[in-house]
Amino acid sequence: MNKFPFVALALSLALPLTLASCGDEKKAAKPRIDPESVVAGANMQGRVKVAPVGVEAVSDTLRVAGQITFDENRVARIGATVTGRVTDMAANIGQNVSRGTVLGRINSSDLSTQQLAYLRARSQYELNRRAAERAQQLYAADVIAAAELQRRQSEASISHAEMRAAADQLRLLGVSASALGQLGGQGVISSSTPILSTMNGVVVERNLALGQVVQPADALFVVADLSKLWATALVPEQQVRFVQQGQTVALEIPALGGAKREGKLVYVGQVVDPKTRTVVVRTELDNRGGELKPQMLATMLVTAAPEKQPVVPNAAIVRENNKDYVFVETAPSKFRIRAVTLGEEVAGKKVVISGVKPGERIAIEGAFHLNNERNRQALEGQ
User: Fold this and answer.
1) Digit-coded pLDDT (tens) for 100-112
2) CA–CA dist 275, 273 (Å, integer)
3) What pLDDT, on the 0 to 100 scale, is given for residue 133?
């Protein structure tokens, strides 16, 4: 016999009611809304404008780091012509000099020795020349034989060649033609020789001190013409296809407040550096105003030939979680959000690298409102 008849009766009556109520809740539950889609309601009429993804001719701009350098065709590294000791430094760094300006002086025993050799060769030539002239007169008077005349003429020719060789050696040591003529006329030997500038420009380096012993291999002064400079940059090998000789480039120079300069590429390297995997490019810059300084940093902007690429207006782009999205129309007043990869901006539009294709219809206005509506509908569907 059941000891609890009232409990069993209560359970039997409650069970159908519970099942029935569960069924009613399932029927009343709202369907979950797709968080990636949105339906434009009546409250967004006029706020959303749809148009197909367009295509425009866009020029890719390559940005590469570079710097301002000397024009190597306008730089002179000047050294001593003989081994000697520095006795005077006439030029300072930053000084404007002209071709032939004395930059310094050195004292050289080698120069004295070579001057003495020249004087000896000159004296011997004068002696042999006079002897050959006398022999010519004696031969005409039938006093000496032709063989004697030829011997004396040969000695004169040899001594003349030796004198010229000694003079050439002095020229190599930096002795000018006027100084050589003075040496031959007066016979005064000087062991001091000047260091002369070989071009017009500015002294940018000075590598000597008083009393220092220098050699011809030493670069004692560097003189540069700064009226024209180079801007060089290293282009990664994957982007070399965007550059070619004669192409117009722009330069952003931070030291000048971001001011831009324009130039043309005068050189594109033919070899890839195996260590950096880059190619050197170079342009020339006019610097008659003196604003540019060698070793200034610069950014070179190289614009490639225009190519047709898909673009979307900035108003069509929604950014969330550091990603870019657009709303693609799937049916009238229905949209689906889609991630896109964007490139550079051109006249208020962004180049599309991936995500949408030309011709697809997207919301070009009201994307912000669509995104808010999508978020609201997604929350209500949870």
Assistant:
1) 999 999 998 888 8
2) 6
3) 93
pTM score over 0.70: no
- What is the signed CA dihedral for 96, 101, 104, 105, rounded to 10 degrees? 180
320 pLDDT more than 90: no
SS (H, E, C) the chain: CCCCHHHHHHHHHHHHHHHHHHHHHHHHCCCCCCCCEEECCHHHCCCCEEEECEEEEECCEEEEEEEEEECHHHEEEECCCCCEEEEEECCCCCCEECCCCEEEEEECHHHHHHHHHHHHHHHHHHHHHHHHHHHHHHHHCCCCCHHHHHHHHHHHHHHHHHHHHHHHHHHHCCCCHHHHHHHHHHCCCCCEEEEECCCCEEEEEECCCCCCEECCCCCCEEEECCCEEEEEEEEEHHHHHHCCCCCEEEEEEHHHCCEEEEEEEEEECCCCCCCCCEEEEEEEEECCCCCCCCCCEEEEEEECCCEEEEEEEHHHCEEECCEEEEEEEEECCEEEEEEEEEEEEECCEEEEEECCCCCCEEEEECHHHHHHHHHHHHHHCC
